């Protein structure tokens, strides 16, 4: 009788299983209402993250502290969170009306409040994806903090290394350091973190600011100190979810208010029944593409093509931005600053008021009636479904219902690429949900050929919509790329957007079933390449050409 052969699981299979466990664990902990990240309740999260070993978190599974991952995470969490034993995730519960100072992380639009020395509150208004994002970052942060503790704590009586005593004296006394003293401290940190002097010095510079030049020392100290408190004094760090958050999540509360605000502006400006084109993009590329040549005639004359947009991307060009916005506000642009809590600002453009003689777009497709363009800032993960689903619903007022005449929806954004490099362009033919293999094929009005000739490569194929870009590793991504799924990149919103568009047009009849869709992404990173992940830094000027190339093609098809 032949024996059954047991096939070893591949790393890609293990990674898929780890992501599934993370997803289930986070939903369970959210339903439970609280958990201790470094206790028994947080064990599954920790084990899954260590098994997964995502590229963004680098050497998380090693004894040495991961510095690039630390920079990435700290930029997405509120300043001072490393000092807090208690972290509360809340809905929008009125803290903006209190004396608490709002803290907004540099790379994530979320309002946070330092309640007291030991507690940080983080407002969740962008759906479950935001919760997953925060919990994975916190898990990474706390794993790294215990690495620091292991390297400095000599016994449970709280005897510590001399390097730690030196760091503690500097941080607690807020000591002003000379250049020589700073270099000595960096050398000590090399021992504490298990890193070279050069690596620590580079990380130190990443956290330096004019207001707080020695912030890196403070972050490392408080991470280690709270881990020591957990081990020696049982003062466990705790993450809590407010009851209001538990009741509101998944019910489109913020998205509904956001969408109704937009439709009311359309109604008040007699735009509600005009042809509408929705673009999910940044807040500058459509604005600049339409208005910059008219608003800045001298600069446009001296900077041909995309050179004008490269000029506008410089940090010193704020006065030029002001000129463009002032000109645009008198020529058809209405800016809707978000007050709903979604953190998604909106621009409404009445193309009837645009001077087409001075821009490069000819009116070929919209001759009968001047369209209205709605530009919405980027959504975050599952929030894309909530906002698009609500936006595509009819506008109801005083018992009357008005369907929006949505002719097209265009989605452009950043994504990880699996072939090519930073700044290259991806044109998807379908979106696939990671883990479930639920898929959304569609006819993309943009083609690979449309984006050629701009000096960057373009690729077409399937895109995978992931639970979190920070959860991917090379083994999993290599499987997606090399298998018959033919995946060219990964992002967090595409399938959520398409789910909303498809249900609104094909099932619910909220918009025309002939609505045109356009998807295009430019590469922010290549997670299959060492040193090319999101943790290696932003796009900088590399992103200007693909951003404006995609914008130009979208506008050409609209006009």
Provide an overview of this structure.
It contains 18 helices and 18 strands. With 559 residues, it is of the alpha/beta class. A 6-stranded mixed β-sheet has the order 1-6-2-5-4-3. Helix 16 links the parallel strand 16 and strand 17 (487-491). Helix 1 packs across helix 16 (474-482), helix 5 (162-172) crosses helix 6 (179-193) and helix 6 (179-193) crosses helix 7. It is globular. The chain starts with 10 loop residues before the first helix and ends with a helix.
State the gist of this model.
The protein is α/β, with parallel strands linked by helices.
Query: Total strand count, please?
Result: 18
Strand content: 15-25%
Rg of Cα set: 25 Å
Give the termini distance in whole angstroms.
71 Å
Helix percentage range: 40-55%
Mean pLDDT: 91
Shape: globular
Low-confidence segments, given as residue ranges, are none
Task: State the major sheet.
Answer: 6 strands, mixed
What is the spatial order of strands in the main beta sheet?
Answer: 1-6-2-5-4-3
Number of helices: 18
**Class by SSE composition:** alpha/beta
Annotation keywords:
alpha/beta, 5-stranded mixed β-barrel, single chain, 18 helices, 559 residues
